[in-house]
Amino acid sequence: MSNYNETILIVEDDPQIRNFIKYTIEKEGFQLFSAANAQNALNIIVTEKIDLIILDLGLPDFDGIEVIRKVREWSETPIIVVSARDQDKEKVLALDTGADDYITKPFSATELLARIRVAIRHLYKKGIKAVQPYFLVGDLKIDFESRIVSVAGTEIHLTPNEYNLLNLLSKNAGKVITTGSILKEIWGMNYGSDTQALRALMAGLRRKVEKTPAKPRYIITEIGVGYRLVDE
């Protein structure tokens, strides 16, 4: 990828990591701002046109989770968290608070750029969502108007909940959807945290859409966090 015009804000207090991210982004043609603490980051966000935020959680003035919470009060700017915190509960909290993606340190330039590409695609899809009649990735196609799902041109028959689950994942393709969020969307607020039904539902869906369910091509498990439908 090259010749991008989007502007990215890097919020990272570690100079070495900040410079690594800056170098990775600049050579791809992105414009950028950087901040070493949360307050400076918020000042930039409210005064500049920022298309994507790359955010560390362990900031010196206040926690990155608070940055996500404050930004989400008025903006849908994509946020990619990059953090040394590798506990599942930390990832779930960041995603449920409003982050779009989460990368655990250390990470490679290749991985970071792949996540950025996904976030940028989401940025533009938001503006054309209403005119997208179908979702297509690989051999998997979802026709939203007819509610028909096909793999390699062959229609597959899904239960209502299987379709609702696939539909939810496709509308957020490339993003991790937490287990708690899926439970609320599919079964409602009062369903609790019992994941057994979701695992059974997911197993049934994978048997129908995946060539090898044990090694899924489309629906990826983010262990301890949730699920992600690939978008490329």
From TrEMBL:
A single cellular component GO annotation: protein-DNA complex
SMART domains: REC, Trans_reg_C
Ranges where the Response regulatory domain occurs: 7-120
Annotated compartments: Cytoplasm
Pfam family of the protein (one): Response_reg
DNA-binding region listed in the record: 132-231
Nucleus as UniProt keyword: no
Origin: domain of life: Bacteria
Protein keywords: Cytoplasm, DNA-binding, Phosphoprotein, Transcription, Transcription regulation, Two-component regulatory system
Gene Ontology biological process terms from the UniProt entry: positive regulation of DNA-templated transcription
OmpR/PhoB-type domain location: 132-231
Cytoplasm keyword on record: yes
GO molecular function: cis-regulatory region sequence-specific DNA binding; identical protein binding; phosphorelay response regulator activity
Modified residues (4-aspartylphosphate): 56
Function description: May play the central regulatory role in sporulation. It may be an element of the effector pathway responsible for the activation of sporulation genes in response to nutritional stress. Spo0A may act in concert with spo0H (a sigma factor) to control the expression of some genes that are critical to the sporulation process.
Name used for this protein in its record: Stage 0 sporulation protein A homolog
Biological source species: Lachnotalea glycerini
Upper lineage: Bacteria, Bacillati, Bacillota, Clostridia, Lachnospirales
